[in-house]
UniProtKB/TrEMBL annotation:
Statement: the UniProt record of this protein carries the keyword Signal: yes
Leader sequence residues: 1-33
The reaction(s) this protein catalyses: Endohydrolysis of (1->4)-beta-D-xylosidic linkages in xylans
EC number assigned by the record: 3.2.1.8
Protein name: Beta-xylanase
Domain GH10: 73-376
Assigned protein family: Belongs to the glycosyl hydrolase 10 (cellulase F) family.
Enzyme class: hydrolase
Keywords for the protein's UniProt record, in alphabetical order: Carbohydrate metabolism, Glycosidase, Hydrolase, Polysaccharide degradation, Signal, Xylan degradation
InterPro entries: GH (IPR017853), GH10 (IPR044846), GH10_dom (IPR001000)
Gene3D superfamilies: Glycosidases
Transmembrane segments: none
Organism: Streptomyces flavalbus
């Protein structure tokens, strides 16, 4: 016999209840009522309640697979490896997974002459077993680089060889098993200037290294779609303009760049980027694929720590609008949320006072945002 489910902590029970009870007038047109299956067992994800099943053919709904990074400082074991309930939902709900930290330099290349593929392999194997595609993340970035690299004393020739070997080794290892790679991550600042100081590669080797990174990645896995990925590029602005110019430039040089993606770490403090679709279309028009790669929608939490129904409604609207924008653009076929449960979200750790950014509570109860995504996928 299955042991009885432990009683849920009050604060989450409250959220779930309020969200359910108020579904209706408040969520005008955004979320649908909770299906009856959910009332019986809040954790059973019946087929009609699965994002991946609701998605149109060829459209991938993804999530980050939690582990590494900020999780290492939390008092729980590695989520992806140890949390059974989490893994079950990950497999059932999503058709794409992105290693949240497990393919970043500090994780996968901890010493100059040593790679550690264990955590990344586990995700790629899980994805294969569950019929999911994988977004590789990331190869050229200013952050989460190991100390041996950032503080090393290398000549330019050595640095170039280090990057080339890394890309060749990592991309080569997963060749044929990665649908999209974030080759370059966050290479521009908010003004649309290349990060010539923070980014070790651009600082030491010059802007041409970006093109080389794409060339090396393409050589190592000609089937993978290679992306430029950043935050703050949801709208038409200086930063996305800079990407547009860069893409034109790279294409003119016949550099194999295939996609442009917006992370979409959104906050209800700011308005929704209403020109997201228009912006993605600019890249689509150049023949690029587009994607939403790290969507979450954080909010300022009330003192209780529990979002109000109005906050959850607003959040659901943001999620739905981001998805709808992507669905509307022909070659936007990959839509990824940066984690699906507040239990493991990076948001409270990085944004003081903000939280509740994902589509499920800490105990995996689905929020209005989840139902808004499900409904939008079914409509598509
Ligand atoms: C975050 C992870 O979620 C955290 O676990 C980690 O501690 C820091 O990085 N942009 C990106 C992601 O491209 O890799 C970042 O992920 C969030 C912002």
């Amino acid at each position: 016999m299955r042991p009885a489910r432990p009683i849920r902590p009050l604060r989450f029970a409250t959220v779930a209840l309020t969200a359910a009870a108020l579904t209706l007038p408040l969520l005008s047109g955004v979320a649908t009522a909770e299906p009856s299956a959910q009332r019986k067992d809040p954790h059973s994800h019946a087929k009609q309640d699965r994002l991946r099943a609701a998605a149109p053919k060829g459209f991938y709904v993804g999530t980050a697979a939690a582990g590494g990074g900020h999780h290492l400082e939390q008092d729980y074991p590695d989520p992806f490896t140890y949390d059974k309930e989490y893994r079950k939902i990950l497999g059932q709900q999503f058709s794409s997974v992105s290693p949240e930290n497990q393919m970043k330099w500090d994780a996968i290349h901890p010493e100059r002459d040593r790679y550690d593929f264990a955590a990344a392999d586990a995700i790629v194997d899980f994805a294969a077993k569950h019929g999911q595609v994988v977004r590789g993340h990331t190869l050229l970035w200013h952050s989460q680089n190991p100390a041996w690299l950032e503080q090393g004393d290398f000549t330019k020739a050595e640095l170039r060889a280090i990057l080339r070997d890394h890309i060749t080794t990592v991309v080569g290892r997963y060749a044929g098993r990665i649908q999209q790679w974030d080759v370059a991550n966050e290479i521009f600042d908010g003004e649309g200037n290349l990060r010539t100081q923070e980014n070790i590669w651009i600082r030491e080797l010059g802007p041409g290294i970006v093109a080389d990174a794409f060339r090396w990645a393409h050589r190592a896995d000609p089937r993978a779609k290679l992306f430029l990925n950043d935050y703050g590029v949801e709208s038409v602005n200086a930063k996305s303009d800079a990407y547009l110019a860069l893409v034109k430039d790279l294409r003119a040089q016949r550099v194999p760049v295939h996609g442009f993606s917006a992370q979409a770490h959104l906050s209800t403090r700011y308005g929704f980027p209403g020109d997201l679709e228009q912006n993605l279309r600019r890249f689509d028009a150049l023949g690029l694929e587009t994607a939403i790669t790290e969507l979450d929608v954080r909010m300022d939490l009330p003192e209780s720590g529990v979002p109000t129904p109005a906050q959850l409604t607003q959040q659901a609207e943001y999620y739905e609008r981001a998805l709808t924008a992507c669905l509307a653009v022909e070659d936007c076929n990959s839509f990824t949320i940066w984690g699906f449960t507040d239990k493991y979200s990076w948001v409270p750790v990085f944004f003081q006072g903000e939280g509740s950014a994902t589509v499920m509570t800490e105990d995996f109860s689905r929020k209005p945002a989840f139902y808004a995504l499900l409904a939008a996928l079914k409509r598509a």
